[in-house]
Design goal:
By secondary structure, the chain is of the alpha+beta class. It has 3 domains: 9-154, Deoxyribonuclease I, Chain A (4-Layer Sandwich), CATH 3.60.10.10; 167-216, no CATH class; 233-302. Helix content is 39%, strand content 15%. The protein has 8 helices and 10 strands. It has helices at residues 50-61, 86-97, 172-182, 195-216, 233-252, 255-287, 292-302, 321-332; strands at residues 9-11, 20-27, 30-38, 65-71, 100-102, 111-112, 117-118, 121-126, 133-138, 150-154. The strands form 3 sheets. Strands 1-2-3-4-8-5 form a 6-stranded mixed β-sheet, covered by helices on one side. The protein has a two-stranded antiparallel sheet with strand order 6-7. A two-stranded antiparallel sheet has the order 9-10. The longest helix has 33 residues, at 255-287. Residues 34-150 form the Endonuclease/exonuclease/phosphatase domain.
Length: 344
């Protein structure tokens, strides 16, 4: 499942483990639980996992819509597999019982290896949000995995991009020039006789400063996330080479070509891990020389994060941002009580 737009989601740790990861998207139109689920082929109980069942039950109690992207390891002709097996029948019964909708379209294989192509990946959605999902497709781009990327669109407006000013890019010479042009002549001391007059001059000075700043530091709108800091030109070349080997192996189907692709993929993943380690080590070395508070500020400024969900003293996880904030309030201000009275 690919998410093209940048959205803020919160991990739900109490509904996540090694095989199931659940995140919550909070938006004005309602809450959406995004679930990535791996269903092991050697699970004796059969699909779906118990945690996925519990996750859907909790989402239903909270009135949240659900979108599930899964490596189901199950075959059924309903979602385009070449045949139907016992796991597929079990999973299909579960889908019907939970009133989930199957978003898969066509029979393009989602799992591709040297000797096998099959539809093993499923996209499911709750019945309320399913009509908004369109353009489901298997993407031909190389995913550097046995499984292909799956893309789809959700109709509706995405979150607006917030414009911002970056003080580091301010044209300070232009700021001073504009400020001199905008500021009125300084008043004499005798003219500042009343508070109203002083307030008027303060307003004029503030307005001039704002005008100068807007002129020398224009608003910027983010264009999307670029390459991570650890990405290098060498990684780009290795990735392109690996993609070419994959395309060649897919066209020819020769075992030797698949071996070359697997070797290239192993090299690419090894270099990827190496680049991340080097970048992280370099980042840590740069902040070691700063004071603790300055170091903390630099880390947050470099990698800003949203406040996640917390666990209270009883071990219960928050299920919304409001609950998280309430936990923080109770922990740091235990005697706090809501009151409509204003102290005098």
């Amino acid at each position: 499942m690919l998410v093209r737009n940048e959205l803020t989601v919160f991990l739900l740790p109490n509904f996540s483990n090694a095989d199931v990861v659940t995140a919550k998207l909070e938006c004005d139109t309602g809450n959406i639980w995004l679930v990535a689920a791996y269903m092991p082929h050697d699970d004796e109980v059969g699909p779906p996992p118990a945690l996925l069942r519990r996750t859907l039950e909790e989402a239903s109690r909270n009135g949240a819509d659900v979108i599930i992207g899964s490596d189901a390891n199950s075959r059924h002709s309903i979602w385009g597999s070449s045949d139907t097996n016992t796991r597929g029948e079990s999973l299909f019964d579960f889908i019907i019982s939970e009133y989930l909708c199957i978003c898969n379209r066509g029979n393009s294989p989602t799992f591709v290896t040297a000797g096998r192509e099959e539809v093993l990946d499923l996209t499911l959605a709750s019945h309320r949000i399913a009509p908004l999902i369109s353009n489901w497709r298997v993407i031909d781009d190389h995913s550097f995995s046995d499984h292909r990327y799956i893309g789809f669109s959700i109709d509706g407006e995405g979150p607006p991009r917030k414009s911002f000013r970056n003080p580091r890019n301010t044209d300070w010479e232009g700021y001073r020039r504009k400020l001199r042009q905008t500021l009125p002549r300084a008043p004499g001391v005798d003219t500042l006789a009343t508070a109203d007059v002083v307030d008027g001059w303060v307003e004029a000075f503030s307005s001039a400063c704002i005008t100068a700043l807007e002129s020398s530091c224009p608003l910027k709108t983010p264009k999307g996330r670029g390459k991570p800091q650890w990405w290098t030109l060498e990684l780009s070349e290795i990735r392109a080479s690996c993609r070419r080997l994959f395309n060649k192996a897919g066209r020819s189907g020769l075992p030797d070509d698949w071996v070359l692709y697997k070797t290239g993929l192993s090299i690419y993943k090894s270099e990827l891990r190496r680049a991340k380690r080097i970048s992280w080590k370099s980042f840590c070395e740069k902040v070691e020389g700063f004071h603790e508070s300055s170091r903390f500020r630099r880390i947050l400024a470099k990698n800003p994060v949203s406040l996640g969900y917390l666990k209270d003293v009883d071990g219960k996880w928050a299920l919304s941002s409001e609950e998280t904030l309430q936990m923080l309030l109770n922990a740091h201000f235990p005697s706090n009580t809501s009151s409509t009275e204003v102290p005098l």
